[in-house]
UniProtKB/TrEMBL annotation:
Coiled-coil ranges per UniProt: none
Pfam families, alphabetized: ABM
PANTHER family cross-referenced by the UniProt entry: SIGNAL TRANSDUCTION PROTEIN TRAP
Superkingdom per UniProt: Bacteria
Record-annotated ABM domain positions: 2-93
Protein name (record): ABM domain-containing protein
């Protein structure tokens, strides 16, 4: 299994709107080949920070999704006016070893 962890920090007090957008997202990733699951979490000690954890069958499935038009379409619900803390957006990749 391949895991992608994306993190970002909201700079302008729009965390509630961003969290609501994730709750009401169109769910396009669920139809992507190789997709297993998505978790969206936020640390209690920094509610302006958002973590997206996607689980994939393999890295190629993730790359195919990431470069697809559906990936770009899935971001259409981002609240207007959202500002991020500069350089806070990061993506890391993980090999799943066990549960």
């Amino acid at each position: 299994m391949f895991i992608a962890l994306s993190t970002f920090t909201i700079a302008n007090d729009m965390a509630p709107a961003v969290k609501e957008a994730f709750i009401n997202r169109p769910g396009l990733v669920e139809g992507a080949p190789g997709f297993i699951r998505l978790q969206v979490i936020s640390p209690q000690d920094n509610p302006q920070e958002i973590w997206l954890i996607t689980h994939w069958q393999d890295e190629e499935s993730y790359k195919t999704w990431h470069h697809s038009h559906m990936y770009h379409d899935s971001h259409s619900g981002i609240p207007k006016g959202l500002k991020l803390v500069p350089r806070s957006a990061k993506v890391r990749f993980f090999e799943h070893i066990c549960e």
